[in-house]
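Researcher: I'd like a structural prediction for the single chain below. Treat it as a standalone chain; there are no partners to consider.
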Amino acid sequence: MAPFFQIFGSFRMFIILLLGFSSGIPLGLTGSTLQAWMKSDGVDLTVIGIFSLVGLPYTLKFVWAPLMDRYVPPLLGRRRGWAVLTQILLMGGIIAMGATNPVENAGRMALFALCVAFFSASQDIVLDAYRTEVLHKEEYGAGAGVYILGYRLAMLTSGAVALILSDHLPWSTVYLIMAGCLLVGVAASVMAPEPDRHAEPPKSLRESFVGPLMDYFRRKGALEILIFILIFKLGDVLAGMMTTPFLIETGFTRTDIGTVNKGFGMIATIVGALFGGALLAKLGILRGLWVFGIAQAFSNLMFAVLATLGHHYPMMVAAIAIENLCGGMGTAAFTAFLMMLCNQRFSATQYALLTSLMAITRVLAGAPSGWMAKELGWVPYFVATTVLAIPGLLMLLRYRKWVVDPEASTAVPARG
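Model: Treating it as a single chain, here is the predicted structure.
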């Protein structure tokens, strides 16, 4: 097994970092940054709220993912070719957004924002597939951590940096600069190495849509794996949903929350993902899911301790640091697990389907979280989030039924 420094120091990891950055740039430009632009220009709040619908392509990307498995662009191959194409389209869409006045042409802005979200989701489809195929299995965890690092840095760029620039430059110039940032992704896609082994694309449209499902459900424990994906991060999601309301109710200021929870918490998440990815190379995916899953679950109890102490700033910092650190490690292991499940022939479609399934947990868990916190109180609520993580952990007892050899899935060709 490759030493840590060899894994993180490889050219593949450098490319994954740059591609993660490219993937994270568009999100803020159709979300929080666009909202800030519209609000500062006096757009009605109702219109701003409706603009949240432009994010729908991110949840529906599995619908057209089979097309990106089936068809191969004429240049740079099935993955890199699609990556460059979506990145060029993204740059055009972002520049078009910057050239549009959201007050006078809200409809046109919505159309351009929707196009950017669609191209961004398409870029995510192909980059997720590429990451699954180009990395060796022992690099999955580290690759997840490096990709998260690039993605978070990009979100900081298209969020905080873009807002700071907007105080000194016209919005059209800001969006032009943000579009230019995607040249990082174009360069990375052109330089990126091809996977060691190439899988044959689906031979027909029917196979590209039906094949990924048939391939997945032929494996042992297919339904169990889907249930595991739904519930593994349930406790972590529930805790995260109510963290900000809890901190406000406990008496912390918005500055405290912004600085520690959003800023320091993001750093802790990145560190956790990188550290977890490095350890995963030694632990393997099964033990990583156990170790990081347990840490992820019990880190929620730090908020129960904070709820008992009340307004205690050092404890608040500790709780956020530990929860985000453990959450980052859990995400690295979970992402590596999802990557392992994908067959190279259909990796774009299968990964899009699996990550869409993960999103269901966030949506469904968010609905009752406020009611639970109100009825239980903060201490029992955070204890309950820990308890609700246990079923997902117990399902790991079935792992060897899903993957005969924990170090090699029969559904994924051996690599490396």
